Amino acid sequence: MVETYARPRFGEPREPKNLVNPGNRLARLLDVVTVSHVRAVAFLLVCGLLLFLPGFFTIPPVDRDEARFAQATKQMVETGDYVDIRFQDDVRYKKPVGIYWLQSAAVETASALGLPRAQLRIWIYRIPSLIGAIGAVLLTYWTGLAFVTRRGAVLAALMLGCSVLLGVEARLAKTDAMLLLTVVAAMGALARVYLSWQRGEDPERPPWSWPAIFWTALAAGVLIKGPLILMFAGLAIVALAIVDRGASWLWRLRPLWGLMWMLVLVLPWFILITLRAGETFFTDSVGGDMLSKLAAQESHGAPPGVYLLLFWITFWPGAPLAAMAAPAVWRARREPGAQFLLAWLVPSWIVFEAVLTKLPHYVLPLYPAIAILTVGALERRVLSRGWLRRGAAWWFGIPAITSLVAVIGAITVTRQPVFLAWPFVAAALIFGLFAWWLYEDGRAERSLLNAAVSAMFLAFAVYGVVLPALTPLFPSAEIARALRNVVCVGPKAAAAGFQEPSLVFMAGTGTLLTDGSGAADFLSQGTCRFALVEQRSERSFVQRAEAIGLRYNVAKRIDGYNISQGRPVTISIFRSEGTE
């Protein structure tokens, strides 16, 4: 028996009729959870936790962006200054204050609840990203309801939640997961306003809730990552205006009231930071960060087409289905629903491909549109039957490649086989193989569900077991552990040669970043002081120590790997014995 669905046009969702049990346990589960919105939301919430929690608490701070954000937040909490943004004594004006406020709220709440050493626990700073990732999954479900059936909306949200890229961002204390949440909220509200106009509904009928969500999400997005969210919404609106030869539907957004509300939310902090720093914030954030991305910033330059290639990895397991859906999406491009989703996707994707600076997470806010477009084609049974079907093998390919890299990498780095990961690896391979073997044009959701289970087992294997076991990749954690075990009160440290932000976060805001000579001078200035000297800076440290008559001993040597610079490091922890 084959499931039979009503074939909705994009933007005209209808519930499935004459639904027949597909004879698959995972599909039966989907039948159960899509009976009501409450069940669907609960199911997606559980899936989000299963996908994002492995490794969330145990992976140490990751250099460099996560550690920089966390350290700047820690300094806000330490100083009580929630306007200025600093990393040690340097201003950090690349992004607005939104994510720092959210992380500060998490830290302050944890401290108020009595959690010891809350300011040093990186997972607390990751809580906004976890909320952003799960919230984005739930909002993709809400947005999908404007285009496809409830079952399809659940599949689209699950596809986003399982994506490799969102799995990474959910575990990093930075802006991108929360930005995704604001973008999906804004575009979901915008979609409802646009589709109500396309259906010819009364202009007074759209509730105030849609414009309120849209403008509030824009304000939150601006506070989190500046004007980037305005690009997503603005380019979509311009594209729709060109295709429709008009944009009268924008009045349904109550733009006058909406702009005033947005300014009420955004302007206070921008006024405060201007009073504090003058034009420095805008110079650094717009000129130093945003505009510099037009060039190859920080060695992240790449030619056009890179995002399309990375898509096969970053959007797995949805990528094979998205490729099979592409021809059908193109044929449906004039339908209102597909037209809106393509306006959300295509113009911004072109901009990102054209900009020289390329980082994988830049295109994350476009993935919900891809997921909904893919499910729209899946529900209509119009997935490609041509050579694109061969992409189904990728459902097995990613688990196979990832498992091989994880196991071999763990053995290479730690000299241990990490046996605990092997059952999860085996399960991921099995379900990935099922996804490939069971693929049929008319029952593609079975493959997607099996691939989703494979993604969950991969998350447990890679994030939950392997990465936390790779301790040499996180030397800052080992250094901080050694400093906590010293027998003196209030240890102070100076670092030479290894100066990653994670070290400042874990060893303390007052950690001095200097050279070998400066580390020797620092060590001579008092007791309970430690010099953290990387091997390449050791010679200058020794020479200066001899020159000033410094007697010292080696408390510990730590061998590791600097993932930011891509090279092994050996850090010696020196302690003073006084001067001659």
Give the helices and strands, then pairings.
Layout: H1 25-33, H2 37-52, H3 65-79, E1 86-87, E2 90-91, H4 98-112, H5 122-125, H6 127-144, H7 150-162, H8 164-169, H9 176-198, H10 209-225, H11 228-244, H12 255-277, H13 280-290, H14 306-314, H15 319-331, H16 336-354, H17 367-379, H18 394-414, H19 422-437, H20 444-469, H21 475-484, E3 492-496, H22 501-507, E4 512-514, H23 516-523, E5 529-534, H24 538-548, E6 550-562, E7 567-579
Parallel strand pairs: 3-4, 3-5
Antiparallel strand pairs: 1-2, 5-7, 6-7
Helix pairs in contact: 2-6, 2-7, 2-20, 3-4, 3-22, 6-7, 6-9, 7-17, 7-20, 9-10, 9-16, 10-12, 11-16, 15-17, 16-17, 18-19, 18-20, 19-20, 21-22, 23-24
What do these coordinates show?
This protein is an alpha/beta fold. It folds into four domains: 65-125, no CATH class; 129-384, no CATH class; 392-472, no CATH class; 474-579, D-Maltodextrin-Binding Protein, domain 2. The protein has 24 helices and seven strands. The protein has helices spanning 25-33, 37-52, 65-79, 98-112, 122-125, 127-144, 150-162, 164-169, 176-198, 209-225, 228-244, 255-277, 280-290, 306-314, 319-331, 336-354, 367-379, 394-414, 422-437, 444-469, 475-484, 501-507, 516-523, 538-548, and strands at 86-87, 90-91, 492-496, 512-514, 529-534, 550-562, 567-579. A five-stranded mixed beta sheet has the order 4-3-5-7-6, with helices on both faces. A two-stranded antiparallel ribbon has the order 1-2. α9 (176-198) packs antiparallel against α10 (209-225), α9 runs antiparallel to α16 (336-354) and α11 (228-244) packs across α16. The longest helix is centred in the last third of the chain and has 26 residues, at 444-469. The protein is globular, with a radius of gyration of 26 Å.
